[in-house]
Amino acid sequence: MTQTPANAADLILAPIAMTMGETAGIGVEIAIKAWSRRAIYDLPPFYLIADPEHVRATVSLLAKVNMDKKAGAVTVVEIAAPADAVACFEQALPVFPQALARKPQPGQLDKANAPAAVAAIETAMEHIRTGAASGMVTNPIQKSVLYDIGFAYPGHTEFLAALCGDGHVPVMMLSCPGLKTVPVTIHTSLTDAVASLTTELIVEQAMITAAALNRDLGYSPPRLAIAGLNPHAGEGGGLGSAEVEIIQPAIDQLRARGVEVRGPLAADSMFHEAARQTYDVAICMYHDQALIPVKALGFDYGVNTTLGLPIIRTSPDHGTALDIAGQGRANSLSLTSAVAYAGLMARHRARII
């Protein structure tokens, strides 16, 4: 059990840095909405790294479309340093300035603004490194437009790992109320995912996950469930050999290292309510095996968390939603959940829970 320091009540965590994401998408809109509901969800202080004029214009747009009266009445305050966010958070949405090349148009990608989206992530990382921020929440980026300016990473996860330097292996964890999943293979084709699956990879990802659940979320010990790759977990080799040759040896190694683990389990029967009570996180073999149950069970509340890095990073588990940008229709619950999750992790790391 986590021990609370005697002076825990005196500790004040640094605010959370939130990046703006794709400027033509819904990132700024849902950031405004999340702040407007800060008291309802007891959100920790955060600040948005974005162009202040773009944020104010988005508030005005929300007021005009009249889809969300609270969001349309938000006050925006430009801050000079992350520390300023704590003092003004209850009265206004703090915005740390990140200039844009051009005024964004909702739903219309503009590669002139793509460098600013990347710069916001780099700024958040620098704030964490200096202790000015306790973690980051990243709004969705549009990778296609980033590739046009030379962005060389499959997504946030890999980019953040590169910013953190050598020696860190990022692990993607998806969560919603009642379920956490980790895909062992991430942004690769299903064919390549199967080909790249190894005992060593499963052990590595599971060990990182177990350590993070203990340090960042207080599970002691965390209970892991390992999914099979093939239908019915391979039927003892009758429907494929991966479970026998790759997954079971990984489970044996994890048990030898003291990890509480079950499996390989048939993926079609490990996500119902009773089964989910028997583990804290499901280690899945490929992207969709991990994401489908989370999105089916709690799409509006899904959170993507990067484990295995020295920083705290969460994000909403959805994309840029260009098709509804600027209409006031975007749901902010996933982002709200991501902010709450980042705050929870920060408190655990500071050991004030």
Description:
- By secondary structure, this protein is α/β, with parallel strands linked by helices.
- It has two domains: 1-168 and 310-353, Isopropylmalate Dehydrogenase, CATH 3.40.718; 171-308, Isopropylmalate Dehydrogenase.
- 38% of the residues lie in helices and 16% in strands.
- It has twelve helices and twelve strands.
- A twelve-stranded mixed sheet has the order 3-4-2-1-5-12-11-6-7-10-8-9, sandwiched between helices.
- Helix 1 (27-36) links the parallel strand 1 and strand 2 (46-50).
- Helix 8 (199-217) packs across helix 9.
- The chain is elongated.
- Mean pLDDT is 93; it is low at 1-10.
What features would you highlight for this structure?
12 helices; Isopropylmalate Dehydrogenase; alpha/beta; 12-stranded mixed sheet; disordered N terminus; 353 residues; elongated; 2 domains; 12 strands
CATH class bucket of the largest domain: Alpha Beta
Average residue-wise pLDDT: 93
- The global form is elongated
* Estimated radius of gyration: 21 Å
Give the CATH superfamily of the largest domain: Isopropylmalate Dehydrogenase
User: Between the first and last Cα atoms, what is the distance in angstroms?
Assistant: 10 Å
- Total of helices: 12
CATH fold call of the largest domain = Isopropylmalate Dehydrogenase
Strand line-up in the sheet with most strands: 3-4-2-1-5-12-11-6-7-10-8-9
The number of E-state strands comes to 12
Number of domains: 2
Overall structural class, as computed from helix and strand content, comes to alpha/beta
Return the string of H and E elements.
EHEHEHEHEHHEEHHEHEHEHEEH
CATH arch. level architecture of the largest domain: 3-Layer(aba) Sandwich
Strand content: 15-25%
Helical proportion?
Answer: 25-40%
Main beta sheet: 12 strands, mixed
Q: Unreliable stretches, pLDDT < 50, 5 or more residues?
A: 1-10
